[in-house]
Amino acid sequence: MDGKGMVSLKDIVPSAQTNIKTQFILLDKGRTAMEGQNKTCLALVADETAAVHFQFWGDECDAFEPGDIIHLINGIFSYNRNNLVLRAGKRGTIEKVGEFTMAFVETPNMSEIRWAPDPSNSKKYVQEAVISTHSRIFPPLA
């Protein structure tokens, strides 16, 4: 796999576009919940630049475990029930590409930043404030 077009987690911004291509390690996984007919679970993922909450859907919930290195293609970073999450969405794909051997940081957490529309371009979002430096859902690993 080549790194062409890959984006670091610290560079993702909320958007309706499903074009995020990135790679991260799965650090922690929350319990599975039902959203309508779909099984979902929230996870904490990170790369060497930032962490973010990732939402797994359906069979994805059971297919991945902490320590898995995951490659995401055509992902989306958007709000779901007031939580800002990265996910594959309908058009995206995720696949396991390795285990355990990846440098990562737990802060900043991109899901814990308050975003606001860019005054000069309403289609874009800019960081407004840091809500929390670490995930408020998952406790720090260290």
Automatic annotation (TrEMBL):
UniProt cross-references to InterPro entries, sorted A to Z: NA-bd_OB-fold, SOSS-B
The entry's keywords: DNA-binding
Name of this protein: OB domain-containing protein
Q: Which organism is this protein's natural source?
A: Hevea brasiliensis
